[in-house]
Known about the structure:
The protein is mainly α. The protein has twelve helices and no strands. The two termini are 44 Å apart. This is RNA polymerase, sigma 28 subunit, SigD/FliA/WhiG.
Amino acid sequence: MVDELVTAHISLVGHLVREVLARVPSHVDRDDLTSAGLTALVRAAQGFEAERGVPFARYAATRIRGALLDELRGVDWASRSVRRTARGLDETRTRLTHSLGRVPTDVELAAAQGIPVEQVLANREDLARAQVLSLEADDARGSYATELPSAGPTPEQAVEHAELLTYLSEAVAELPERLRRVVEGYFLAEQPMAELAAELGVTESRISQLRAEAMVLLRDALNTQLDPALVPAHDRPDGVAARRREAYFAAVAERHAAAATRPFVPQVATSA
């Protein structure tokens, strides 16, 4: 019975692996996912109870999806080349922070690293995208364990997701320099709060405050573009803080508009 179920449903593993690969970075290993999926299929066949009235394909798909997402949780969502560049930039940023007595600008960082400033910005966006994908994998693992398998995102959902990623990376890039450094260090580079505090010359409690401030700005910047009704009104709309906030929202919108008018240039994959 087990062998028959496995043999009859091997193609289901291939289908679900292809579905996952279509939504993750190209460096995710197909063989590792397939192995995890096949193992889950065998275990599903061994534990299947037909008297429960659930079709085996439906039951197995849920188990296989869960196994694939477990496998993805161990994946580094940024390629080795992206991580290598990020480490070099972090080291250079730390060195410049000590020598300048402040956090360096992107232009200063690029010059010290000997790379175009566009590469610094691209690396930041790659890391932001990797962080979002990692968080989504964790969220998806919790839901797929209890929900029935879906057919994947609709074209509309895929477009909305891509738009959200774009706005997020643009909103991070437009944050005031110190807030951006906290977001990149804490969430993307996973630096300890004490290390960030030492780099910026502030206390850990101040880093916590800056992080909270950045999260509010990012949330409101995204909502300004995607769902304005969710943006709370400022207590003092004519005050300096309100004007700065509006200027930040405008800068994010301007960056997004500028990006939308740039011609698409396909990236050529290179080995890490």
